[in-house]
């Protein structure tokens, strides 16, 4: 028997097969004529297939979003990772609509993710927040809806301010951490409202983001629908092996954000260029040996760990580079070298920038 992890790898294996070939498991790559230009998929516990490479829309300027979305679809992207808090869902929606109207893609072939913001955790606000996102994206349903953080904040009406962001009242002259007003809404209450979105057909799959093992255990005690995805910060400086193993054992697919580590945080003052994993000697050496870029080496490392990725870029050549990960692989030794860079360095930590610890 042969355990097939990736049909693409198997079809191009140089190792001869003798006797009957039995596929015990596989990763779906799509059935279109141009599937070779597109990423593989992971099969969720719901049975839906999530692309392993998507485009993260965090920090992409509003004015750039429509073109970036269309360019990405032309480059082979099918997954777009959004959030209320990113403040650009209207513009992302325009890019999706432009692509659909032009006929280069159909809605069924896209995977659109968004996230519930902290101020909408109360059961009476969850559907309202989802409908707002659907309106902005000009969609009838989401493929995946995530609880953005395990943090509940005081409700801010949409008509008052959208997206609400972290501060309850930004005009108040308070320290940032003092301007954040938390409220005691149980995760179980929020999750039950998320489950109703699935029942109503507004959302196909539901999951979480920035959850640790303890929070996942607590959630699964009462959940009727188990979270299919946990999206967390993952890169060679923050490998989180225990969380990765826990999610795998419990059938929760992991998506990593900030896949390349520091770049997205330098301009926010949350990292410096000294934090760049792409400059690490082992990454540079592997890239040279493979005739690849350091970014491709790190992104391929993610995929071989079994996690999907959502790297951000607005540049066409980077779009193609970030998705061109399926015609090479890293050896076990190369994987271990990259993993050994782990220093538990978290860049996106509410315990630091908001004084709300969720990982400790």
Secondary structure layout:
Layout: H1 7-11, E1 41-43, E2 49-51, E3 55-56, H2 65-75, E4 79-81, H3 89-102, E5 111-116, H4 123-137, E6 144-147, H5 187-199, E7 206-209, H6 213-222, E8 229-233, H7 241-249, E9 253-257, H8 263-266, H9 281-290, H10 294-304, E10 308-309, H11 316-323, H12 332-339, H13 350-353
Parallel strand pairs: 3-4, 4-5, 5-6, 6-7, 7-8, 8-9, 9-10
Antiparallel strand pairs: 1-2
Secondary-structure class: alpha/beta
> What level of helicity do the residues show?
25-40%
User: What order do the strands of the largest sheet run in, or round the barrel if closed?
Assistant: 3-4-5-6-7-8-9-10
Helix count equals 13
Describe the fold and architecture.
- The chain is an alpha/beta fold and 360 residues long.
- Helices cover 34% and strands 10% of the residues.
- It has 13 helices and 10 strands.
- The protein has helices spanning 7-11, 65-75, 89-102, 123-137, 187-199, 213-222, 241-249, 263-266, 281-290, 294-304, 316-323, 332-339, 350-353, and strands at residues 41-43, 49-51, 55-56, 79-81, 111-116, 144-147, 206-209, 229-233, 253-257, 308-309.
- The strands form 2 sheets. It has an 8-stranded parallel beta sheet. Strands 1-2 form a two-stranded antiparallel sheet.
- β1 and β2 form a beta hairpin.
- α2 crosses α3 (89-102).
- The longest helix is centred in the middle third of the chain and has 15 residues, at 123-137.
- Mean pLDDT is 90; it is low at 1-38.
């Amino acid at each position: 028997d042969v355990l097939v992890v990736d049909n693409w790898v198997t079809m191009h294996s140089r190792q001869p097969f003798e006797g009957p070939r039995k596929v015990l498991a596989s990763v779906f790559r799509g059935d279109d004529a141009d599937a070779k230009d597109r990423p593989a998929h992971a099969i969720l516990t719901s049975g839906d297939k999530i692309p392993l490479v998507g485009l993260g829309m965090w920090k992409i300027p509003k004015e750039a979003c429509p073109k970036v979305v269309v360019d990405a679809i032309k480059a082979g992207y099918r997954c777009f990772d959004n959030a209320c808090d990113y403040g650009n869902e209207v513009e992302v929606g325009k890019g999706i609509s432009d692509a659909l109207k032009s006929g280069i893609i159909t809605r069924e072939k896209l995977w659109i993710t968004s996230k519930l913001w902290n101020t909408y955790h109360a059961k009476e606000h969850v559907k309202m927040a989802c409908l707002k996102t659907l309106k902005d994206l000009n969609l009838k349903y989401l493929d995946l809806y995530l609880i953005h953080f395990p943090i509940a904040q005081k409700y801010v009406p949409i008509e008052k301010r959208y997206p609400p962001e972290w501060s309850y009242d930004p005009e108040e002259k308070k320290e940032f951490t003092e301007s954040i007003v938390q409220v005691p809404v149980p995760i179980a209450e929020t999750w039950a409202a998320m489950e109703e979105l699935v029942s109503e057909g507004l959302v196909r799959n539901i999951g979480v983001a920035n959850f640790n093992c303890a929070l996942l255990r607590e959630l699964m005690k009462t959940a009727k629908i188990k979270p299919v995805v946990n999206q967390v910060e993952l890169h060679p400086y923050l490998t989180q092996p225990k969380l990765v193993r826990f999610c795998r054992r419990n059938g929760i697919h992991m998506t990593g954000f900030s896949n390349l580590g520091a770049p997205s945080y330098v301009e926010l003052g949350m990292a410096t260029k000294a934090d760049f994993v792409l400059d690490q000697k082992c990454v540079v050496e592997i890239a040279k040996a493979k005739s690849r870029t350091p970014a491709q080496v790190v992104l391929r490392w993610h995929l071989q760990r079994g996690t999907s990725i959502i790297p951000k870029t607005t540049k066409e050549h980077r779009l193609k580079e970030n998705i061109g990960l399926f015609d090479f692989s890293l050896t076990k030794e190369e994987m271990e070298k990259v993993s050994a860079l782990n220093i538990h360095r978290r860049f996106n930590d509410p315990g630091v920038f908001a004084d709300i610890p969720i990982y400790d």
